[in-house]
Queue: 2 jobs
Job 1
Amino acid sequence: MRRLLRLSVIVLTSLALLGAMHVGRQASGCRLRPGSNVMLYGGPDDPDVFLWDSPMDLAAYHTDSYDAARSMLGHAIVVTGGTHGVVVMCLPHFVHREAGFDDAVRVLLGDGPYRGRVGWVFAGDLRAVSRP
Amino acid sequence: MPAVGGTLVFTVFLVVVLGLAVQGAFVTRVQISRTFHRQARLEQAQIQLEELRRLQIDEENAVRGFTITRDPFYRQQYLVAVADFGRRLAEIRTALQSEHLTGAIERLRWYQLAQRAWRAEVAVPLLDYPNLPFPETAKRSKFYADYEARIADEIRTILATRSAYLARSTQEQINRTLYVRAFWLLLFGVLAILFNAYRSRTSRELEEERSITQVLQRAFRSEHVPLPNSDVGSAYAAASSHLAVGGDVFDVYRLSESLALILIADVSGKGVDAAVLTAFIKFTMRGIALRRRDPGAMLSEFNGAFAYTVSNPYLFVSMFVGILDTERLSLRYASAGHDSAFIRRADGVEQLEVTGPILGVMEEQFESRVLQLADGDVIVLATDGLTEARDRHGDMLEGKGAMDLIAQANPQPQRLADELAARVRAVAGNRMRDDLAILAIRVHAKGTAQ
């Protein structure tokens, strides 16, 4: 009886650990890790990217109304598509966009007129690049 | 009649079921065609939306090109894109309105307003003053581009949703049509099987009745008894319709060396009952004829026996009965409402008059007539299938027509009977409504028999 009890405890604990590992993997699911070299690129139609002062501004811009979004433009700069940078921080699944949740990524710009500036962009507007 | 009525009802029902199946197919075809047309219109709107997005990007690129190169070519390109943009926008709006997509129409209006704002705040200032500080203008340009992209996505979603709905609805229509048509065809098939079974059963019953009737008729019809100084011929033509077979009877029965009973009768009913009644007529009249020699008295006696024996109030009999004296060449006869009796003489054909009402109606006295015959005269007796034969126009032959046919026929009794039967069949176009019995007797003066 005791042996059966011990076996049950082991099995249940193993299952709980496996579940916790799975949840943890989901929560820390950032595509880009801090230190990754990236290129800012919005897409073929509009390659430029907004770089926001805070992740809240980034999220609000895509969920707020036309007027609210427009009033927030003072908290952003437009970075030319193709500008390089380095990932500083990542908040997984932070922003809700049409295609689903996207990571908010803090980036340090490495070239262009805003070189040295830090701001927040969508992970979808970043391309990982290998840089020496 | 019930069989005919049932057949008619079944046929009408089958036609209605088939009609419904066919009509349903046509209605569904129209509905599906309409749905496909709507889907094509939605696809066209989707294509035009992508074209609109391309024109918007063309405008942006033209402005960018101008600010970098100052080349008037880009300004011209910008103006062309602006003109096309307006036209394309109007086309999309028409398509959206035809589908009553109010949400998409509203978003298209926002899109148009955003594009106008972009032109006013970004494009026109840059085209007029290419040296404007770019960062702020770029920010606005990016904002409008993002906004328009988001609106375009929403319109795409609405169009795709409606398109998916139409596709689903088309599939449902096709499925529904298949089920409904399968149901109607199944019903049609079952009804057709039932109809066929019903018809087979009815035909079998009719055929059995006809077969029984014909067996009875053959059994009761007289064989020709040789009569002195006379030739006898007879013919029988059955009606085309199974229902009409029945109550015709004739008889030639030798009573003595020189006397013979000749008789023809027609029973009002049809079928087995009438055929059985013909046996009653034949043998009752033979029995009476053995005791009596006056045809009128014979009919009177038969009339009493008929009323006593036959309980069906709808059965009547017309009958011609005669006592032929082959020695003296005379015919004593009486006719109970039977007008198809003729004498063909050397100088023409005469119709023998009726001497009393039909049998089975009331007690009545029947008169007798005596007819003197000449060598070669032919007594022609027939049932009403002769005088009431109808041609293709529905006109009856009647007594006059029958006398013409008799006058034209061969005088030899058997050939005369056969010819008459054939002519009546020809007149009726092989669609005889009633049976026809013909009895022909040619008398000869003693010693001239052929």
Note: Helices of chain A lie at 2-27, 55-63, 66-71.
Job 2
Amino acid sequence: MHELSLVEGILAIVREEMAKHGLTRLVRVRVKHGELSAVVPEALETAFEVLTVGTDLAGACLEAEMVPLRVRCRQCGEEFSPSEEERFLMPCPACGTELGHHVLSGRELYIDHIEAE
Amino acid sequence: MQVEVARNILEANDAGAEELRQIFARHGLLVLNLMSSPGSGKTTLLERTLTDLREQLRFGVIEGDCQTENDARRVAATGARAVQINTHGGCHLDSAMVREACEQLGLEDLDILIIENVGNLVCPAEFSLGEDAKVTILSVTEGDDKPEKYPFIFSQSRVMLLNKIDLLPYVPFDTARASAFARAVNPELEIFEVAALSGHGMDAWYAWLRKSLEAKRTAR
């Protein structure tokens, strides 16, 4: 539950980008978070509301989009997306090797874009 | 209009952590980020370590808690230099808090700085504090499936201290299972079985501390 401090980071970046482009009214922030990043999207959205209400950014919304986990097998190189139940051992569908695979995506935590006027 | 941003949300913390890393390197200081659930024995383990090594190594301690100065007082009673950070409900320490605490503490004349994070197995692992190594304590009263449930923190740690090992006769905890899971997510993980209260098994942990400090100093 560190969503509040994540949103503080988000707002700092958003304000910087808005100033850079001479924008004053924020409409939307699109955040991308990997399946493995410890982020609860609803908590992120609530934290965003809490920290913007009564400020110059009030009324804007935060949209969180999850980036699915994708790994490359450390043994045979097969690329696959483990299901939620398989997320711990991550057995490779091609050769059965578990764990220690190279994570291709699923760790992301970044602001993709903003919409503002 | 739409503005492409593509910036890491943790960039401010990461930049702060990198600055800390450079400051720590200048002081030749070994820095450990000590993490665990609440009640696993972080402070007791610190008290024991600081007391046993008092004559050999100079320790500084940054204590992170939601509230109270209790832990800093306990640690200071061993003779170590300590400051308390209160996060006022925050679930983790970040690099800005640690930077401020370092200024209060002073990094001169120290060998090892231990940052005791807020008790939590999720959030602290995401925030780098410029440390050389993360050390996670798991106590046998917590259940042996913790590494399975919280793989990220164990994958990021250099050491796992399996604490309260003297309670094994009284709790259903399979040390082999806990260690196997932890090593599965992190094959390099060093595991020490200890009982901080009685001092059992602490020598291997102390040897690791000395070895790591030496490695840090040689790398300078």
Note: The radius of gyration of chain B is 17 Å.
